[in-house]
Here is the input.
Amino acid sequence: MWSQLPENKHNNAPKNPRVYDSDMPTFTTDVRMQKVGDLFATSAGKASSDEQVQGSGGGGPCEAVYWIKEKGMQWRMKGTAFIVAPDIEGGEESSGVRTVKSEAGARMRVVEGGEGKEGEWSWGRELTGHFGNCSPGMRGSWRNPPPGTPVKGEPDKDHQLAQKVEDLHDPIARSNFRVVIIKPDEVEQTDLSDPATARRYRYTFDGNAQDGKGEWKMEELWP
Here is the structure.
């Protein structure tokens, strides 16, 4: 979940203090992948220029499904997705950066003991933490030749397959690395662990509940 990186003894990136939790799952991607442009083009701002897509922003519709085989459980999430890029911190804030911090920030809750420490938490540090949470081989994938482009001869020396990146600030890998935050509005949990008692549970987020902080409302359904 965003703001809740798991403990990883192999991740030597600086970590944020424990200030926030959230209900927003994340995944990593490459800015050169089509999904990044799609999340910008289908957002409220309809951003489509190459320059806009390179930075933070997005907000297009997103749906993700997780199947937990060992538990016989499926989770389906529907909502919007936002891109976190290197411009998320430092320099003048773009409209995309402001959108990400406003939309995702609205669902980041201060944990017990985190009050008064909000200023110690860094969006840029969290982004680097996600990069460090990947293996050196995975980090190297952000130095691959551009995904989906035709193979025409040998790629240049900076974009080769099967590279391993140890440097947390490798300029080429970091320029392509992105974190996507899914901000779910509806979650369906389908429990198929026992066919005799199978159920589906729909959770809908109500942003107006609990003094404006929002809450999840659950409805039990037949699967």
